[in-house]
Specification:
Length: 115
C-alpha cells in the first residue's frame, strides 16, 4: 500500500468516527454495461448522503465493502460532454432574485398614505 493510499484511509476513518454516516439512503444497484451489453465491472450502490460506492451482492441482497472511485466505477464517464451554460442564464439567475428582493424592500419602506 502506498503512502498516499494509507493517508486517504486514515483520513476517511477519522472522518467516519467524527461524522458517522449510517448509509441509510442508497441508490438502486448499478451494473455498468459495455456497448455490447456485457457487464464491465461489479454491481454497486451509492450512499446519497456521503457519496461512497459499495459493492452489492445480488445473491444475498446486501451491500459489501466500499469500492474505490476509479473511472471504471462511475456511471457517467468523466469525458462526457456537458450542457453549455450561457452568460445570459447566469445573469438572469442572479438578476431576477435581486430585483425581487429590491422590490420587496422598497415596497416595505414606502410610507402609508394618510387620507
Amino acid at each position: 500500500m502506498t503512502r498516499r493510499a494509507w493517508k486517504v484511509i486514515v483520513i476517511d476513518r477519522v472522518l467516519n468516527l467524527l461524522f458517522h454516516c449510517g448509509h441509510r439512503h442508497l441508490t438502486r444497484p448499478f451494473t455498468p454495461l459495455s456497448d455490447q451489453g456485457v457487464p464491465r465491472s461489479e454491481t454497486y450502490v451509492v450512499c446519497l448522503d456521503c457519496t461512497k460506492q459499495f459493492a452489492y451482492d445480488w445473491k444475498e441482497m446486501r451491500i459489501g465493502k466500499p469500492i474505490d472511485h476509479t473511472h471504471d466505477a462511475f456511471v457517467i464517464p468523466p469525458d462526457m460532454t456537458r450542457p453549455r451554460k450561457t452568460k445570459l442564464a447566469y445573469a438572469l439567475g442572479v438578476a431576477v432574485p435581486v430585483a425581487v428582493l429590491i422590490g420587496a424592500v422598497l415596497k416595505a419602506k414606502r410610507p402609508a398614505v394618510e387620507k
